[in-house]
């Protein structure tokens, strides 16, 4: 479970990027995080993961405060950033072993998980190559593999399907569903509203740093007395005019 309590983030000389955000992401659910460009999605995710400091309020992950107890909090989540261009001078296997070392994954367990995940994502043949030689989609796959390697309870995914081929995208969506069905938490941002509508149990919509809606699609239709698609409701909610 992820709990954001009155979270605020200011950037000097600008309006509040995140303004008193309260949001609870429960266990056993896939929650989609939606908003137009500049709405505060990535800023929120970077505060949840401890990349950005919180100016006010608090964030806990399964009871661990990301600021006061960061090591314990970071042990229980996996994070896929919106750009997979990281650790480019490492070979694929070097990167995965680096992740395995950080999380103290036993060697035999690590070998089995690496073999299984990389075969599923069809990158097992490229583990001896440098990540900088990978295509965008392959970089996304190696990052996702690294995230899943320590089997975290909480998945935090920022545009995780970008660059994936249809087969890999389908596989990741199936894995997200299975992870949530086991009672774990999946929180992901996406611009693909059809994917969110198809996959998510609940959606959170943010604009200008403020939460506009959180709930199921059915609750959204009841709230706005509309039978419109998620795309149509989203466009109406985030219309600045």
Give an overview in words.
This protein is an alpha/beta fold. The chain has helices at residues 41-48, 70-75, 92-102, 107-120, 136-148, 166-181, 193-199, 217-223, 230-237, and strands spanning 2-9, 18-25, 29-34, 56-61, 64-65, 77-80, 154-158, 185-189, 202-207, 210-215. Strands 6-7-8-3-9-10 form a 6-stranded mixed sheet, with helices on both faces. The protein has a 4-stranded antiparallel sheet with strand order 2-1-4-5. Helix 3 (92-102) runs parallel beside helix 5 (136-148). The radius of gyration is 18 Å and the shape is globular. The two termini are 35 Å apart. The model has no long low-confidence stretch (mean pLDDT 90).
Largest sheet: 6 strands, mixed
**Which structural class matches the secondary elements?**
alpha/beta
Overall geometric form:
globular
| Biggest sheet strand line-up | 6-7-8-3-9-10
Spans of 5+ residues with little confidence (pLDDT < 50)?
none
Number of helices: 9
* Element pattern in H and E: EEEHEEHEHHHEHEHEEHH
- Average per-residue pLDDT, rounded, comes to 90
Distance N to C terminus: 35 Å
Helix content: 25-40%
How many distinct beta strands?
A: 10
Gyration radius, in Å? 18 Å
Oligomer: single chain
Q: What proportion of the residues form beta strands (DSSP E)?
A: 15-25%
Keywords: ATP-binding, Nucleotide-binding, Transport
Organism: Ornithinibacillus salinisoli
Protein name: ABC transporter ATP-binding protein
GO molecular function: ATP binding
């Amino acid at each position: 479970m992820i709990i954001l309590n009155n979270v605020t983030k200011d950037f000097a000389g600008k309006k509040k990027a995140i303004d008193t955000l309260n949001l609870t992401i429960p266990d056993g659910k896939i929650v989609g995080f939606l908003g137009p460009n500049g709405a505060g999605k990535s800023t929120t995710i970077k505060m949840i993961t401890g990349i950005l400091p919180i100016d006010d309020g608090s964030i806990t992950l399964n009871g661990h405060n990301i600021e006061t107890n960061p090591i314990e909090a970071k042990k229980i989540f996996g994070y896929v950033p919106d750009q997979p261009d990281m650790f480019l001078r490492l070979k694929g296997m070097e990167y995965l072993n680096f992740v395995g070392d950080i999380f103290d994954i036993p060697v035999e367990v690590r070998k089995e998980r690496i073999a299984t995940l990389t075969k599923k994502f069809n990158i097992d043949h490229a583990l001896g190559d440098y990540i900088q030689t990978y295509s965008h989609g392959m970089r996304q796959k190696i990052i996702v593999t690294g995230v899943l390697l320590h089997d975290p309870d909480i998945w935090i995914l920022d545009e995780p399907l970008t660059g994936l081929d249809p087969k890999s995208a389908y596989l990741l969506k199936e894995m997200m569903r299975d992870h949530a069905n086991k009672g774990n938490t999946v929180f992901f941002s996406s611009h693909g509203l059809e994917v969110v509508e198809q996959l998510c149990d609940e959606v959170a919509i943010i604009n200008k740093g403020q939460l506009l809606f959180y709930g199921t699609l059915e609750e959204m239709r009841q709230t706005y007395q509309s039978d419109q698609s998620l795309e149509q409701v989203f466009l109406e909610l985030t219309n600045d005019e």
